[in-house]
Amino acid sequence: MKLWSGTLSPFSAKIRIYLGERNIPCDLEEVPWNRQTLWGPKPAAFLEANPRGEVPTLSDGDLAVFDSTLIWEYLEEVHSGKPLLPEASRDRAMVRAWEDEADRLMKEHLTVLIREGFLGGGDLNALAASNAAFADFYDRLDGQLNGRTWLGESYSIADIATFVCLLFAQTLGAEIGNRAGLAAWYARVAARDVVQQEVADILQHAAAA
Ligand SMILES: N[C@@H](CCC(=O)N[C@@H](CS)C(=O)NCC(=O)O)C(=O)O
Which class in CATH covers the domain with range 2-78? Predict the structure, then answer.
């Protein structure tokens, strides 16, 4: 199996952490990113696998799987071992909902922090709106984590997706602040071996970008 991935792509980071946590062997193929051309040049073989030209994309033989949610769902089905989507229907629904919410924040608001902040677009109104969206997300997460160790009943894909979203958002200035439950959960996820390695790689790449 091969994962077309970008080190600075949060959706890719979600899948890299998922693969690491489940010990699933997979070759990584980096799609380059830089400040001028953003994602690209995109290798022809990558565009052949995924006409959308988005990372992450999983190639498993002649099967190409995208987007990130469809990738981990596929991997849950074909790999035995401890799953990262719980069994019980209510827990499963809750985990899926938090993962979906992290994806939405990444798509709608992280992109604004990157474009208007990191890349210097400078639209202060857009930045303020996205920072407010993150503050609201953090409040809801803090409420959910009141008295809980993980977002669901056990460590799951919801924790991975949400952690990645918050890692990038915080690096781009949307701080967690004094939300104690959320900060404690964040530290718990960050302490995991696979996550530590991933965070180190991302921060090293971001510093050089
Ligand atoms: N819904 C997709 C979103 C993937 C996505 O937006 N990937 C970005 C990088 S984080 C990308 O590849 N963009 C390519 C481009 O903008 O050309 C998923 O969950 O995988």
Answer: alpha beta
CATH code of the region 89-208: 1.20.1050.10
1, 21, 57, 150 from 27: Cα distances, Å: 6, 15, 12, 29
| Closest residue CA from atom 11 of ligand 1 | 54
- Amino acid of residue 135: A
Residue closest via CA to ligand 1's atom 16 equals: 39
pLDDT of residue 76: 96
**Measured CA angle at 77 (ends 47, 157), to 5 deg:** 80
Q: What is the mean pLDDT of residues 37-42?
A: 89
Which pLDDT score, from 0 to 100, does residue 193 have?
A: 98
Report the separation in Å between the CA atom of 66 and the middle of ligand 1, taken as the mean of its atom positions: 10
Q: How far is the CA of 177 from the centre of ligand 1 (A)?
A: 28
**Residues flanking ligand 1, CB < 6 Å:** 6, 9-11, 39, 53-56, 66-69, 103
Domain ranges across the chain: 2-78, 89-208
Using CA atoms, how far apart are residues 172 and 117, in angstroms rounded to an integer?
7
Q: What is the pLDDT of residue 207?
A: 87
Q: What percent of the chain has pLDDT over 70?
A: 100
- Give 113 Cα–ligand 1 centroid separation in angstroms: 15
